[in-house]
Design a protein that fits this description.
Blueprint (H helix, E strand, L loop, with lengths): L2 H26 L2 E3 L8 E6 L3 E6 L1 H19 L2
Antiparallel strand pairs: 1-2, 2-3
């Protein structure tokens, strides 16, 4: 093989590997989805169009708890 043909094939293989890595990263990135059955208290993510995970929204629950604590404190102040 001539040096130009070898470097051309190496360039093609490198390009193919970079393209596959980019596609793998794009598919593995979690995407938020809506799930009407669970309601607004849950947050769901889908990975690679196959795996779906759901968890309760922590921020919303902690914000509501802090608001409830402030109301309770105000009610008990003399």
């Amino acid at each position: 093989m001539s040096p130009s043909r070898l470097s051309l094939s190496a360039l093609a293989i490198t390009f193919a590997l970079v393209a596959l890595a980019g596609a793998a990263i794009a598919l593995a990135r979690p995407k938020p989805i809506e799930n009407a059955m669970l309601g607004p208290q849950w947050q769901c993510n889908q990975i690679a169009f196959v795996i779906t995970t759901c968890s309760p929204r922590i921020r919303q629950a902690s914000a509501e708890a802090q608001t409830a604590d402030k109301v309770t404190l105000r009610a008990h102040k003399p």
